[in-house]
From TrEMBL, chain A:
PROSITE patterns: ABC_TRANSPORTER_1 (PS00211), ABC_TRANSPORTER_2 (PS50893). Keywords: ATP-binding, Nucleotide-binding, Transport. Pfam families: ABC_tran. The keyword Transmembrane helix does not apply. This is NitT/TauT family transport system ATP-binding protein.
Automatic annotation (TrEMBL), chain B:
GO terms for biological process: transmembrane transport. This is ABC-type nitrate/sulfonate/bicarbonate transport system permease component. It is found in: Cell membrane. The keyword Thylakoid does not apply. It is a multi-pass membrane protein. It comes from the Bacteria. It comes from Pseudosporangium ferrugineum.
Length: 272, 263
């Protein structure tokens, strides 16, 4: 728990995929740390190795070299302290289970009493606004609601870090705004530390307290930007703030540079 | 949707389902009445023979043992086929090693195994069950392998990320994901099993449906022979109905999902 040491520490992370046509370096040299209770957005041009980074964080992929540390101990495989929300909710939820069954599945192997388990599941469904859909099957729900189920499953697992991989890329704009507010609300009310990967610049600035801008593959951290917007945010007023526009312009420019080439390094524009 | 429309649809379906068989029976009657061929029996004669032959002790002596062997053969094929299919489907090494061998065994027409099985196991009930399984297992095994291999990678990654233990992963992820393919395999296996049940009994037996039909044929009991074939057809229909009931239960989510994507 919070004692000054970072929650997540990534140091010189490198991932090379070996393939028949030659090795592909997806992540070159990535370092950052994240504290307890932070909401960090990771944004970068498409194909920049965001998903690779995230899978390394979640212990689903072994890095070629470098360290991922969680609470001071190295991550060598999927950890009970992490839960992942995937972009493809349709492929991540199990269609043969009900909504309740999906949220409950990861809890089955935890040594919880029936009552505690039931309460945890109900509470998670309540938190995402879907208590009435418990007995439906995921495919009977809209895309946005399905992603809420996936989020409920993740928070019912009670992780220390919630890892979200472009979770709202496949839903419409209105639903997306609602889901963004849900993530902020869960972060504020439950203090869940969150790593949020996205390719959407506005989304990263709106959600994050910090935005990491990644370079083109092979990936490095191009900029680590503190989002000094007030913690209470809402879709209308926050997005209309001049500071919001400045920050999104800044991120945008960094990404444009990242797209043009990996040779350029470091921030060149001062904001303020 | 109103309540009347499904009722009407069911009535129409029933008419379609029963109409053609009725016409066929009438044609059969007319044809057999006008034919001089003494190996053709009319529907009434066959129906009469059916009642005389199968309702009574023959049901216990011949039909029940056949059905028991059929049931055992099918159950054995499902258990072995699914278990082996899951193992082979999830282990790439095993799949690569066994691949050519499986292709070879699958290509052997199962009836040729009957003489071999007779030598190895004798003329026993076990032999017949083994023969049924040797044919019926393949569609189940191969479909299970494909079903397991086709399990969505994101679903498996999700299971990994939540550290779902091996047994639960099998029970709640891999098996249901492969269920549509497994059911396809079982459907194919049912008809193979019925064929092999009859053939194994025709080869070497002193009881059973296949044995009876061959016996009637050799003794010129033509109407009785045809009645046995009729009974086989009825067993086939019964199997299909039972399968349909099970499939509806097991794959309810799958049917529902398909309906929604279509709409």
């Amino acid at each position: 728990m919070p004692d000054g040491s970072p929650l997540l520490r990534v140091e010189h992370l490198r991932k090379v995929y070996a393939s028949a046509t030659g090795d592909v370096e997806a992540v070159a040299d990535l370092s950052f740390t994240m504290d307890h209770g932070e909401l960090v957005c990771i944004v970068g041009p498409s194909g920049c190795g965001k998903t690779t980074l995230l899978k390394c964080l979640a212990g689903l992929l072994r890095p070629t070299s470098g360290v991922v540390e969680m609470d001071g101990s190295p991550v060598t495989g999927p950890s009970p302290a992490m839960a992942v929300v995937f972009q493809e909710y349709g492929r991540s939820l199990y269609p043969w289970l009900t909504v309740r069954g999906n949220v409950e599945l990861p809890l089955r192997h935890q040594k919880l009493s029936r009552a505690v388990r039931d309460r945890t599941v109900s509470d998670a469904l309540e938190a995402v606004g879907l208590p009435h859909a418990a007995r439906s099957h995921p495919w009977q729900l809209s895309g946005g609601m399905q992603q809420r189920v996936a989020i409920a499953r993740a928070i019912a697992y009670r992780p220390e870090v919630l890892i979200m991989d472009e979770p709202f890329a496949a839903v419409d704009a209105q639903t997306r705004a609602d889901l963004e507010d849900l993530v902020r609300e869960l972060h504020l009310t439950r203090g869940i530390s969150t790593v949020f990967v996205t390719h959407d610049i506005d989304e990263s600035v709106y959600l994050g307290r910090r935005v990491l801008v990644l370079s083109h593959a092979p990936t490095r951290v191009r900029e680590d930007l503190v989002i000094d917007l007030p913690p209470e945010r809402d879709q209308l007023t926050t997005r209309a703030l001049p500071r919001f526009t400045e920050l999104r312009t800044r991120v945008y420019e960094q990404i444009q540079r990242a797209k043009r080439g990996p040779a350029e390094a470091g921030p060149a524009i001062s904001v303020g | 949707m109103t309540a009347r429309r499904p009722a009407l649809r069911i009535a129409a379906n029933l008419l379609f389902a029963l109409g053609l068989p009725a016409v066929a029976v009438v044609l059969w009657g007319v044809w057999s009445a006008r034919s001089d061929n003494r190996f053709l029996a009319g529907p009434l004669a066959v129906l009469d023979a059916f009642r005389r032959t199968w309702i009574g002790p023959a049901f216990v002596d011949d039909v029940l043992p056949s059905l028991l062997r059929l049931a055992l053969g099918i159950a054995g094929s499902i258990v072995l086929g699914v278990a082996a299919g899951i193992a082979i489907g999830s282990l790439r090494r095993l799949r690569e090693t066994l691949g050519p061998l499986l292709e070879f065994f699958r290509a052997i027409p199962p009836p040729v195994l009957i003489p071999v099985a007779m030598l190895l196991l004798g003329i026993t009930g076990t032999m017949k069950v083994v023969v049924i399984m040797s044919g019926a297992i393949w569609p189940i095994l191969l479909n299970t392998i494909d079903g397991v291999r086709a399990t969505d990678s994101v679903m498996l990654e999700t299971a990994d990320s939540y550290r779902i233990p091996r047994w639960e992963r099998l029970r709640f992820v891999v098996l249901p994901a492969a269920a549509p393919r497994i059911m396809t395999g079982v459907r194919q296996a049912l008809s193979v099993a019925l064929i092999l049940m009859v053939i194994s009994e025709m080869f070497a037996s002193s009881s059973g449906l296949g044995y009876r039909i061959a016996y009637f044929q050799r003794n010129y009991l033509i109407a009785e022979m045809w009645s046995g074939i009729l009974l086989l057809g009825l067993i086939g229909i019964l199997l299909a109905v039972l399968f349909g009931l099970v499939e509806r239960r097991v794959l309810r989510w799958y049917q529902g999902m398909k309906e929604i994507t279509r709409a």
